[in-house]
């Protein structure tokens, strides 16, 4: 199911930056007009998985700075077999531990994750962002 959702969403919207599409730097939305960028793709994947019955407790959004300074957002799906990344730049579903950012050899760039599991960060509110120093 994850592979199908990732591939279908990656193939559906036309990629366009928020600067070009909305004339603002960042605008997070589910792309109802068929146009979006990485965070919009991640939100669309999240909505489809929720509509298919996946618990919101198992879905995380992660945003990191790429080496060129651009922000990139992915969807993380927590499963019994590991935490998997659904990324707008690839059809491949990868385990969190086997993933680095596109265009980066390092895993030491700052990353921000929303909704980490309470067993990992028990005092963290599920709707707050947490900065990870490595991933």
Going by helix content, strand content and strand pairing, the class is: alpha+beta
User: What's the level 1 CATH class?
Assistant: Alpha Beta
Low-confidence stretches: 103-110, 116-130
User: How are strands sequenced across the largest beta sheet?
Assistant: 6-5-4-3-7-8
| Multimerization status | single chain
Number of domains: 1
* Second CATH tier, the architecture: Roll
Please work out how many helical segments DSSP would assign.
Answer: 3
Q: What is the number of strand segments?
A: 8
Distance between the termini: 25 Å
Please state the overall shape, judged from the principal axes of the Cα atoms: globular
Average pLDDT rating: 77
Major sheet attributes: 6 strands, antiparallel
Instruction: Please provide the ordered H/E string of secondary-structure elements.
Output: HEHEHEEEEEE
Secondary structure: helix percent: 10-25%
Instruction: Report the β-strand fraction as a percent range.
Output: 25-35%
Rg value: 14 Å
The third-level CATH topology is: C8orf32 fold
